[in-house]
Amino acid sequence: MADRTYGDIPGFPAGTTFVNRAALTASKVHRPLQGGICGGIDGAESIVVSGGYVDDEDYGDELVYTGQGGNDPATKRQVADQELTRGNAGLARSQLDGRPVRVIRGAGGDPKYSPASGLRYDGQFRVVDHWHETGKDGFRIWRFRLVTLDGADLPPLPSGVAGPAERVATVVQRLIRSTKVAVGVKLTHDFTCQVCGLRLMTPAGPYAEAAHIRALGRPHDGPDVPSNVLCLCPNDHVRFDAGSIYVDATGVVRDSSSHAEIGPLRTSPAHTINPTQLAYHREHHVP
Amino acid sequence: MADRTYGDIPGFPAGTTFVNRAALTASKVHRPLQGGICGGIDGAESIVVSGGYVDDEDYGDELVYTGQGGNDPATKRQVADQELTRGNAGLARSQLDGRPVRVIRGAGGDPKYSPASGLRYDGQFRVVDHWHETGKDGFRIWRFRLVTLDGADLPPLPSGVAGPAERVATVVQRLIRSTKVAVGVKLTHDFTCQVCGLRLMTPAGPYAEAAHIRALGRPHDGPDVPSNVLCLCPNDHVRFDAGSIYVDATGVVRDSSSHAEIGPLRTSPAHTINPTQLAYHREHHVP
Hints:
homodimer, PUA domain-like, 2 domains, three-stranded antiparallel β-sheet, SRA_YDG (chains A, B)
């Protein structure tokens, strides 16, 4: 495993500017001289957002970042499919582990959020989603949604783990949201997993999670309606979101790597599922 | 199931004051005329914090609230054990579902955060933990930690689910934190669950969660060290935190309701577990 450093680099707080990539490399805030992602199969520690990919989107405290590979540096166009390897695998790994990723913006990026010249370290972000799609140039690209860890987005640290120093090391790995729609779907299925049939019992009653089939939020913008929600146990929720399993067009749950049948999706007459959302999940989250 | 209303009541925003319990009941912000918890087995919608229990703790944006039952209203002392039933079960249920709980403070509570007279609706909180302990009067009490949903504690809503109206309905059900220590323990066990042996695979690699045996934060204040952490699959993490399973003094994982053996806790020579923390978990999280 590479000798990685996650989180802030002492002496280079968010806002630090660098005249060029050589200065950035020297600081170790982003070590590669050329690559946009510093990472590998064990995780990604930093990315540079500099307008190198036509599919990147910058919203300031949130980024939709295109993975690496298949890109012609001369034209900035995609000329081949991207794979979930190297830095792309690293960003996906950092999502699974809940590790912070340093984000550096360069002058070539979106002028609204990028420095006028050189590069600027813009603090720690976390990877909250990754998926693939067909980019503007017609090839498969991997995309990563990152949101800032600075400012008001992180729930308060538990008492006893206070202070900015700890903040660097304490990141949200997984966050399950609850909506009225979500609770309704869980009640319909009586907290029984639609994939494996488990009804996870606790002393306070059964527990399940609601999985949005097409994710809420940018850029998927799935709707918060029952037909876009599955009632799952936590393990199958992780598997579904990560693309380990999918529901095929006939309603059978399958393993993504072997496409072997796991079993029929358990359904209820009181809960209609929209097949278009299941197709969206297959097309974007299954490798 | 009771006809419950979760979240803000239209016309009575946070900060609304009430001259007495009758006025509070009329508003439906807290419906019972006397009880501290409005809730049952299906969930809890509101609580009143008014100094009725000697074990309550108020930190403003965070509360440690004592459940109901076993209390002598004349002396405010505990005279019997509390059970995980009625309103207590409701608060635990609302934690599992990620439902918001309205918090009303009365003049009898901690003067630092309570109104000088009457009652005040202080907005929506979420239940983040519940456990039992021996209270100051020597009887079992159930305790609930609640943190405010107002202000800076909630991660931003996904784009497309914006606005205060949706905020009411969108609550964090479960939040898995990652720390350097946590990631280290997971690597030691190669992401294999110490309870069931599952190594949950995703296209980006294996996934596991780190469970703090004695919880971080108030009032448990467990340490963030490897000897206080288990590597678990998400399902067993939920079971462990909820007290569905525990590790006995001989290192055997058992079901809390039947005390039947599930199997030995899987261990690694590179990961020493502190038996004191396992005892703490048994004493406070197993009903």
